[in-house]
Protein backbone atom coordinates (compact mmCIF):
# COMPACT_ATOMS: atom_id res chain seq x y z
CA UNK A 1 0.00 0.00 0.00
CA UNK A 2 2.95 2.33 0.48
CA UNK A 3 4.09 1.87 -3.17
CA UNK A 4 1.10 3.85 -4.49
CA UNK A 5 -0.57 6.84 -2.99
CA UNK A 6 -3.43 5.96 -0.70
CA UNK A 7 -6.96 6.73 -1.87
CA UNK A 8 -8.54 9.60 0.08
CA UNK A 9 -11.39 7.55 1.65
CA UNK A 10 -8.84 5.06 3.01
CA UNK A 11 -6.63 7.87 4.30
CA UNK A 12 -9.59 9.52 6.03
CA UNK A 13 -10.79 6.23 7.51
CA UNK A 14 -7.39 5.32 8.93
CA UNK A 15 -6.97 8.87 10.23
CA UNK A 16 -10.37 8.67 11.94
CA UNK A 17 -9.17 5.56 13.79
CA UNK A 18 -5.72 6.90 14.65
CA UNK A 19 -6.67 8.51 17.97
CA UNK A 20 -9.49 6.25 19.20
CA UNK A 21 -11.51 3.15 18.28
CA UNK A 22 -14.89 3.96 16.71
CA UNK A 23 -18.03 2.23 15.48
CA UNK A 24 -19.44 2.73 11.98
CA UNK A 25 -21.68 5.76 12.50
CA UNK A 26 -19.00 7.50 14.57
CA UNK A 27 -16.56 6.88 11.71
CA UNK A 28 -18.94 8.49 9.21
CA UNK A 29 -19.20 11.56 11.45
CA UNK A 30 -15.46 11.70 12.09
CA UNK A 31 -14.60 11.44 8.38
CA UNK A 32 -16.98 14.32 7.64
CA UNK A 33 -15.34 16.36 10.41
CA UNK A 34 -11.77 15.60 9.28
CA UNK A 35 -12.59 16.55 5.68
CA UNK A 36 -14.42 19.72 6.69
CA UNK A 37 -17.69 18.22 5.42
CA UNK A 38 -16.26 17.68 1.93
CA UNK A 39 -16.40 13.86 2.19
CA UNK A 40 -19.57 12.16 3.35
CA UNK A 41 -18.94 8.45 3.31
CA UNK A 42 -21.97 6.28 2.67
CA UNK A 43 -22.63 3.24 4.82
CA UNK A 44 -22.00 0.71 2.05
CA UNK A 45 -18.72 2.38 1.09
CA UNK A 46 -17.62 2.51 4.73
CA UNK A 47 -18.28 -1.15 5.48
CA UNK A 48 -16.76 -2.26 2.16
CA UNK A 49 -13.61 -0.29 3.02
CA UNK A 50 -13.56 -1.64 6.59
CA UNK A 51 -13.84 -5.24 5.30
CA UNK A 52 -10.93 -4.62 2.90
CA UNK A 53 -8.83 -2.99 5.63
CA UNK A 54 -9.63 -5.86 8.02
CA UNK A 55 -8.41 -8.36 5.39
CA UNK A 56 -5.24 -6.30 4.88
CA UNK A 57 -4.64 -6.24 8.63
CA UNK A 58 -4.72 -2.43 8.83
CA UNK A 59 -7.73 -2.32 11.16
CA UNK A 60 -9.09 -4.75 13.70
CA UNK A 61 -12.35 -5.29 15.53
CA UNK A 62 -11.89 -3.91 19.03
CA UNK A 63 -15.25 -5.03 20.37
CA UNK A 64 -18.73 -6.20 19.42
CA UNK A 65 -21.88 -5.47 21.38
CA UNK A 66 -25.63 -5.35 20.84
CA UNK A 67 -27.16 -1.87 21.05
CA UNK A 68 -30.93 -1.45 20.61
CA UNK A 69 -31.13 -4.99 19.23
CA UNK A 70 -28.44 -4.37 16.60
CA UNK A 71 -24.88 -5.61 16.53
CA UNK A 72 -22.31 -2.83 16.81
CA UNK A 73 -18.66 -3.37 16.01
CA UNK A 74 -16.01 -1.00 17.20
CA UNK A 75 -12.94 -0.79 14.96
CA UNK A 76 -9.38 0.17 15.90
CA UNK A 77 -6.25 0.91 13.93
CA UNK A 78 -3.85 -2.05 14.06
CA UNK A 79 -0.10 -1.65 14.54
CA UNK A 80 0.51 -2.18 10.81
CA UNK A 81 -2.30 0.27 10.04
CA UNK A 82 -0.54 2.84 12.21
CA UNK A 83 2.73 2.23 10.29
CA UNK A 84 1.01 2.56 6.91
CA UNK A 85 -0.78 5.75 7.97
CA UNK A 86 2.48 7.25 9.30
CA UNK A 87 4.24 6.44 6.01
CA UNK A 88 1.42 8.02 3.99
CA UNK A 89 1.45 11.13 6.21
CA UNK A 90 5.20 11.46 5.60
CA UNK A 91 4.74 11.02 1.84
CA UNK A 92 2.07 13.72 1.79
CA UNK A 93 4.25 16.03 3.92
CA UNK A 94 7.13 15.59 1.47
CA UNK A 95 4.97 16.33 -1.57
CA UNK A 96 3.31 19.34 0.10
CA UNK A 97 6.70 20.72 1.16
CA UNK A 98 8.02 20.45 -2.40
CA UNK A 99 4.89 22.09 -3.80
CA UNK A 100 5.27 24.99 -1.35
CA UNK A 101 8.96 25.34 -2.18
CA UNK A 102 8.23 25.52 -5.89
CA UNK A 103 5.33 27.92 -5.45
CA UNK A 104 7.55 30.28 -3.44
CA UNK A 105 9.96 30.68 -6.38
CA UNK A 106 9.31 33.57 -8.78
CA UNK A 107 7.97 32.46 -12.14
CA UNK A 108 10.52 32.64 -14.95
CA UNK A 109 9.81 34.94 -17.88
CA UNK A 110 8.50 33.14 -21.02
CA UNK A 111 11.19 32.17 -23.55
CA UNK A 112 11.29 31.13 -27.17
CA UNK A 113 8.23 30.84 -29.39
CA UNK A 114 5.86 31.10 -26.44
CA UNK A 115 7.47 34.41 -25.41
CA UNK A 116 6.88 35.79 -28.88
CA UNK A 117 3.23 34.72 -28.68
CA UNK A 118 2.79 36.13 -25.20
CA UNK A 119 4.24 39.50 -26.20
CA UNK A 120 2.25 39.70 -29.45
CA UNK A 121 5.32 39.17 -31.65
CA UNK A 122 4.42 35.62 -32.62
CA UNK A 123 5.08 34.15 -36.01
CA UNK A 124 1.56 32.99 -36.88
CA UNK A 125 0.89 35.51 -39.62
CA UNK A 126 -0.16 39.06 -39.91
CA UNK A 127 -2.91 40.33 -37.66
CA UNK A 128 -3.30 37.14 -35.57
CA UNK A 129 -3.24 37.87 -31.87
CA UNK A 130 -2.65 35.62 -28.90
CA UNK A 131 -6.40 35.69 -28.25
CA UNK A 132 -6.98 34.46 -31.80
CA UNK A 133 -4.60 31.55 -31.34
CA UNK A 134 -6.09 30.36 -28.05
CA UNK A 135 -9.75 31.23 -28.62
TrEMBL record:
<dbReference type="Pfam" id="PF03551">
    <property type="entry name" value="PadR"/>
</dbReference>
<dbReference type="InterPro" id="IPR005149">
    <property type="entry name" value="Tscrpt_reg_PadR_N"/>
</dbReference>
<protein>
    <submittedName>
        <fullName>PadR family transcriptional regulator</fullName>
    </submittedName>
</protein>
<feature type="domain" description="Transcription regulator PadR N-terminal">
    <location>
        <begin position="13"/>
        <end position="86"/>
    </location>
</feature>
<dbReference type="InterPro" id="IPR036388">
    <property type="entry name" value="WH-like_DNA-bd_sf"/>
</dbReference>
<dbReference type="InterPro" id="IPR052509">
    <property type="entry name" value="Metal_resp_DNA-bind_regulator"/>
</dbReference>
<dbReference type="InterPro" id="IPR036390">
    <property type="entry name" value="WH_DNA-bd_sf"/>
</dbReference>
